[in-house]
Amino acid sequence: MSDTDAAAIRAILIVGGGTAGWMTAAALAHALPRGCTITLVESDDIGTVGVGEATIPPIKLFNDTLGIEEAEFLRETKGTFKLGIEFVDWAKQGHRYFHPFGTFGKPFDLVAVHQHWLAARAAGGRVPLDDLSMAWGAAKRGRFAAPMADPRSVASTFDYAYHFDAGLYARFLRRYAEARGVIRVEGRIADVARDGTSGDVAGVTLDGGRRLAADLFVDCSGFRGLLIEGALATGYEDWTHWLPCDRAVAVPCVTGGDGLTPYTRSTARGAGWQWRIPLQHRTGNGYVYCSRHLSDDEAAATLMANLDGEALAEPRHLRFTTGRRRLFWNRNVVAIGLASGFMEPLESTSIHLIQAGIAKLLAYFPRGRSDPLAAAEYNRVAITEYERIRDFLILHYKLTARDDAPLWRECAAMPIPDTLALKIAHFREAGRLLARDMDLFGPASWLAVHIGQFNIPAAVDPLLGYGGGAAASATFVDRLAGAIAGMAESMPTHAAYLKRIGAAA
Ligand code: FAD
Predict the structure, then answer these.
(1) Residue 392 C-alpha to ligand 1 middle, in angstroms?
(2) pLDDT tens for residues 340-360?
(3) Less Cβ around it within 10 Å: N or C end of the chain?
């Protein structure tokens, strides 16, 4: 046996069995089929956070990598398709826009599509930017079909994700992981022991005295961060001054209203915003709000007064502090999921961050209990990923023209990170979309929010001055919108598509 073998990780303990715990367990069981014992400890008495239903397109890669078939996954989790997010009343009351998955059309020359749209608009064109998105073309008609592979087709220009019942997803992944050798231990962790010499976490003790030791610990214990904070006191960077919402109240209801929309809706309210996520068997709803401006009772009353159909449970209250752990990987503990930090679900990024954490853990898998170089790189990448998403979320609050409530006035006036200020300034000047290293959301996403929230450029790309002029741009825009509308009309309804592929539960 070489030194490397002697030092290798032989036992992993995952602490927590929410979405984060079981996604981690499933992925590690798949990636490490032999030579390592993977144990997951969870407590039914404590339970899970019990929310988190909307995702972004990379989730497909996670399922694909694990060999999970789409129709089976949707049946098991009562899932639906998601083409993006409709933002209602964010820029101002009575206004709506769509953040689509995919792009706005396909470029027809070297100038970006949105520059042609801006030129056509300046010349009096009235086609909304949303109508240049294939995802919105389908979404607003309640239609869905998988994107086409042919890059010449406008039906290749969109992407999709899912809405699903996160509790059912965790159960599904538990079956997957246990079938591949993951050992589940039921019990409440009462104590965490550290090695007297190295300071690493050595093991946990459950109520009743059972002790579980491991080489590597993955802290998926939720907001409490049992190991990363409770045992290692890693510290937390608080971002509430940029993202002031700190509470949520959630309730499922009977699906009514617009029915099985293939998109999430986010409606801005006086002290935050409300989500609507349609699943096959119910609709998930929640009000994310700022406790400085709204009481818990008022939030619950607003939520209950704005449901599509009859509530299916009592409203559940949740508290959070937006921000991140100072380190995501500290000693021999890697925090994944809510244990690592939290950003409100405005762009459905939390489950993605779990996936990204798992991907990084596998990419920098430690050579032994201690691997400072791997840990440092993991932390560098994770911090950057978090900050990029943070900036995108702040954009929604900063670019509001609402002045009807203190929260919105405060957000419009608040100082923002320099990285974000630069992006806003570039777009405002000439519609330039700055890409930064490790941006999760690409130019089309930023474009949707800039335009959707009235950050209209003062000028268009100077390259347009060398082309066919505003008339050519207007013709291109009209044709593109027409092609998208025609393609969308030919798609099946969302419900029919779920049935057709055998995904309806
Ligand atoms: P939890 O679900 O809290 O699980 C923690 C686990 O640790 C549990 O199994 C618990 O039993 C265990 N545990 C804790 N302490 C102990 C102990 N002492 N002993 C033994 N076991 C213990 N994400 C999205 O991607 N999309 C969304 O739309 C979305 N919406 C959200 C809305 C709200 C209001 C909130 C708060 C979050 C939302 N999220 C969303 C985030 C998402 O819910 C979480 O990322 C996801 O559920 C993962 O949670 P978790 O597994 O980290 O923690």
Answers:
(1) 22
(2) 999 999 999 999 999 999 999
(3) N
Whether 485 lines ligand 1, by a CB cut-off of 6 Å, is: no
Look at domain 80-163+389-494 and name its CATH class.
alpha beta
* Ranges of each domain in the chain: 11-53+165-240+325-370, 80-163+389-494, 247-319
Q: Which CATH architecture has domain 11-53+165-240+325-370?
A: 3-Layer(bba) Sandwich (3.50)
Residue-wise pLDDT tens digits, 219-246: 999 999 999 999 999 999 999 999 999 9
Check if 82 is active-site: yes
The pTM for the full model equals 0.97
Length of the chain, in residues: 505
3-class SS string, 57-112 = CCHHHHHHHCCCCHHHHHHHHCCEEECEEEEECCCCCCCEEEEECECECCCCCCCC
**Pocket lining: 255 vs ligand 1, CB cutoff 6 Å:** no
Among 338, 350, 346, which residue's Cα sits nearest to residue 289?
A: 346
Catalytic residue among 78, 82, 360, 398: 82
User: What residue has token string 């539960």?
Assistant: 505
CB 288 within 8 A of CB 275: yes
Spatial distance between the Cα atoms of 20 and 354, rounded to a whole number of angstroms = 6
Q: Do 80-163+389-494 and 11-53+165-240+325-370 have the same topology in CATH?
A: yes
